Amino acid sequence: MARSSDLHHLSRRERQIMDVVYARGRCSVADVHAAIPAPPSYSAVRTLMRILETKGHLRHEADGVRYVYLPIRSRRDAGRSAVRGLLTTFFDGSAARAVAALLAESDARLTAEEIDQLRGLVENLRKEGK
User: Fold this and answer.
1) Which residues pair with 59 in a beta bridge?
2) Of 33, 68, 85, 111, which one's alpha carbon is 20 to 30 angstroms from that of 50?
3) What gap in Å lies between CA 74 and CA 93, rounded to an integer?
4) Number of continuous H segments (helices) and E segments (strands) in the chain
C-alpha cells in the first residue's frame, strides 16, 4: 500500500468521493456513483476509488460479489493532516497567518458563539504556554 497522502493532494473528483465515503462510513462504488453530482461513468468512479485505495485513503472489504469501501483514517485525522499541509504550503507554517487570512475573507461572518469559542481556544493556548 502506498504511503497515505494528504487530502489537499486529491483531485476534485477524489475529494467528492472521499466526502461521500466519510459521510456514509462505508459504501460501494454504486453508492458513490449515485451520490456525487454529475458523476463520470461507473467504471471511472470504480477506478478513482481504486486509486484512492492505492494512495492510502480507502480500504475495501468483500460484501458478497461487491466491494465496500471504508476510509483508512478518520475525517478528523485526515483534516488535520490537510491543514498541516496548507499551513506549510501557503503560510510558512504559521497558524496565526492562516487564521488571519481566514478572518480577513469578506464573507467570514462569525457568530458571537464562534468568537467566544475562538477566544476560549486562544486562552487555553496561553495557559498551556504554547
Assistant:
1) 70
2) 85
3) 23
4) 6, 2
- Domain CATH code at residue 69: 1.10.10.10
Q: What is the pLDDT of residues 21-66, one digit of tens each?
A: 999 999 999 999 999 999 999 999 999 999 999 999 999 999 999 9
Contact 6, 81 (CB under 8 A): yes
- Please count the structural domains in the chain: 1
Instruction: Say how far apart CA 130 and CA 110 lie, in whole Å.
Output: 24
Taking the CB of residue 76, how many other CB atoms lie within 10 A of it? 9
CA-CA distance, 97 to 88, in Å (whole number)?
11
d(CA 111, CA 109): 7
The reported pTM is: 0.66
